């Protein structure tokens, strides 16, 4: 079946020329690019969504999580980054397809395809987690300012104003240039790595060979691993990239270029994380601060003390830069989601007067987060630790809905997942749930032994792998679904939402979703309890 359907745009500004930071592609330009130069020019116009979402991923929370892991345990947990590379690509590639084909944001698709009950859960999860994440960004900004001895009040206000102004120009191109400039700020970590002279051999070994810290509290280590997962593969990324691809007007014609943009972004985020692990471990090895992480600001001070003021300054600048782009990306993902769900104008191509709620949500989240950070006595350490772990615990739920949508034939037609993608994603969901189970067990039973943890993993693996395989091979059924010719899929686009046949979830599917939701509610409560206990004990 070859059919071109009426686009399902929720905002008229989502159609038109691609006006990227580094080039323009006209709406009706379908000419093939022959030769390296032509392809690079097209790629320059497309680049942005993947690079920005990945640069935003290495935000203030990531700086805190990666440096905490390496200051306390050296480079022994570097292998977690290697395992997360394919997870990053497969998850974000699915949302790229959803955005290019459906022209509808992630939050609205969940709401329309699974109903108000599940849609409300997903959006509430996103709003609460995003609000807390933005607070952690301003915690990072305040730590960077404190390192330089700058006034906290003035610096936070200026940073908040800059972040708001970056998106409030009414020009998508100007925002993308602002965001890409911040993304390139992550390169500040390169000279820090070179100046610290971290042992590359040890870092590469720990990157490729899994291991666990010797003598560490297994519950704390598991909490940290879940935090690494949560800060590297965060739920907000799914919502942001799908909506940003739509707002940039990227169609399926340019999907391969966007996949390369995503791959470039993953290289940037993984290298940045690798660098932080390596130079932090090398800086504090053999010193009294090793095993006693305080915060990212103290890491900058430690680098300045043991290595030199220049690498310390560069790390602090990179921290502030990462926090600003993180705050912008996470706030924007929330504003897009609200616009999607309420069917309001939600595009960076619009002026403030044309999309007041969109810009109000964006600026309001930033203003509230900045104000919380400025309140004396705010539990900033608790928030920073808790947010990354909460993101890791909530990720299975977000990935389940992503998998269901990516197998929804009325939504994606010939662009639905291949069996290989489904199997991989099912295994990822199983692994994420196993991590969450171990974290829950370590929280309820703090004295649990390594052997008992391994037994839980073995038993849990049996059930979660079965569940993952079932999720991979049994996508939701829909009525009156035709077969599609994948060879002509560039001519296919999702019709308007109201014309789609309803999703028919089986009783087993509904039971699985309810069990997952109940478990995650319990796990989130236990995570909050565990993090609070750790912070209070240290205090």
Summarize the structure in words:
By secondary structure, the protein is mostly helical. Helix content is 71%, strand content 2%. The chain contains 20 helices and four strands. The strands form two sheets. Strands 1-2 form a two-stranded antiparallel sheet. A two-stranded antiparallel ribbon has the order 3-4. α4 (79-102) packs parallel to α11 and α5 runs parallel beside α15 (356-374). Mean pLDDT is 84; it is low at 1-6.
| Beta-strand content estimate | under 5%
Percent helix: over 70%
Flag low-confidence runs. 1-6
Q: How far is the first residue's CA from the last residue's CA?
A: 65 Å
The ordered string of helix (H) and strand (E) elements is EEHHHHHHHHHHHHHHHHHHHEEH
Rg computed from alpha carbons, rounded to a whole number of angstroms = 23 Å
Q: Please summarize the sheet with the most strands.
A: 2 strands, antiparallel
* Secondary structure tally, helices: 20
Overall body shape: globular
- Judged by helices, strands and strand pairing, the structural class is mainly alpha
Mean pLDDT: 84
Q: How many DSSP E strands? A: 4
Strand order, sheet with most strands: 1-2
Quick tags:
539 residues; mainly alpha; two-stranded antiparallel ribbon; globular
Question: What's the SSE blueprint?
Answer:
Blueprint: E1 18-20, E2 23-25, H1 36-46, H2 49-57, H3 60-73, H4 79-102, H5 106-148, H6 152-167, H7 172-184, H8 189-196, H9 200-208, H10 218-232, H11 235-247, H12 255-284, H13 296-306, H14 309-342, H15 356-374, H16 380-406, H17 409-412, H18 419-444, H19 450-473, E3 477-478, E4 503-504, H20 507-538
Antiparallel strand pairs: 1-2, 3-4
Helix pairs in contact: 2-7, 2-11, 2-12, 2-14, 3-5, 3-10, 3-12, 3-16, 4-10, 4-11, 4-12, 4-16, 5-6, 5-11, 5-13, 5-14, 5-15, 5-16, 6-14, 6-15, 8-12, 8-14, 10-16, 10-18, 11-14, 13-14, 14-15, 16-18, 16-20, 18-19, 18-20
């Amino acid at each position: 079946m070859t059919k071109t359907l009426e686009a399902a745009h929720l905002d008229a500004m989502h159609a038109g020329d691609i006006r990227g930071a580094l080039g323009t592609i006209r709406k009706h330009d379908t000419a093939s690019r022959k030769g390296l130069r032509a392809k690079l020019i097209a790629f320059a116009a497309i680049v942005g969504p993947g690079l920005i979402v990945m640069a935003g991923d290495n935000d203030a929370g990531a700086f805190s999580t990666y440096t905490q892991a390496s200051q306390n345990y050296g480079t022994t947990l570097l292998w977690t980054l290697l395992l997360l590379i394919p997870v990053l690509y497969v998850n974000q590639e699915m949302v790229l397809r959803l955005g290019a084909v459906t022209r509808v944001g992630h939050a609205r698709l969940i709401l329309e395809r699974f109903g108000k009950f599940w849609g409300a859960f997903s959006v509430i999860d996103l709003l609460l987690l995003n609000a807390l994440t933005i607070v952690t960004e301003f915690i990072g900004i305040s730590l960077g300012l404190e390192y330089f001895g700058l006034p906290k009040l003035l610096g936070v206000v200026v940073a908040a104003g800059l972040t708001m102004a970056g998106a409030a120009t009414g020009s998508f191109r100007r925002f993308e240039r602002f965001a890409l400039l911040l993304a390139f700020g992550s390169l500040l970590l390169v000279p820090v790595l070179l100046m610290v002279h971290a042992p590359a051999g040890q870092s590469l070994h720990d990157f490729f060979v899994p291991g666990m810290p010797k003598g560490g509290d297994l519950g704390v280590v598991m909490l940290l691993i879940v935090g690494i997962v949560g800060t590297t593969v965060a739920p907000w990324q799914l919502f942001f990239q799908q909506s940003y691809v739509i707002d940039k007007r990227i169609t399926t014609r340019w999907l391969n270029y966007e996949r390369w943009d995503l791959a470039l972004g993953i290289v940037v985020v993984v290298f940045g994380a690798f660098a932080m692990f390596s130079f932090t471990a090398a800086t504090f090895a053999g010193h009294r601060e090793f095993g006693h992480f305080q915060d990212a600001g103290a890491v900058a001070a430690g680098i300045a003390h043991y290595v030199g003021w220049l690498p310390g300054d560069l790390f602090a600048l990179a921290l502030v830069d990462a926090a600003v782009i993180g705050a912008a990306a996470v706030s924007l993902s929330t504003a897009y989601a609200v616009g999607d769900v309420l069917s309001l104008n939600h595009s960076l191509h619009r002026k403030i007067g044309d999309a007041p709620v969109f810009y109000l949500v964006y600026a309001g989240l930033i203003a509230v987060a900045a104000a919380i950070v400025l309140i004396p006595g705010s539990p900033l350490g608790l928030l920073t630790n808790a947010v990354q772990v909460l993101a890791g615990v909530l990720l299975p739920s977000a990935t389940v809905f992503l998998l269901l949508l990516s197998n929804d034939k009325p939504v994606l037609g010939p662009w639905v997942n291949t069996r290989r993608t489904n199997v991989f994603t099912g295994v990822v969901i199983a692994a994420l749930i196993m991590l969450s189970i171990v974290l829950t067990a370590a929280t309820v039973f703090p004295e649990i032994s390594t052997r008992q943890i391994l037994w839980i993993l073995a038993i849990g693996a049996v059930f979660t792998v079965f569940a993952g395989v079932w999720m991979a091979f049994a996508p939701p059924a829909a009525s009156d679904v035709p077969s599609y010719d994948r060879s002509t899929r560039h001519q296919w686009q999702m019709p308007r939402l109201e014309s789609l046949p309803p999703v028919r979830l089986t009783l087993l599917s509904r039971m699985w979703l309810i069990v997952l939701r109940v478990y995650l509610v319990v796990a989130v409560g236990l995570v909050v309890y565990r993090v609070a206990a750790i912070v209070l004990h240290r205090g």
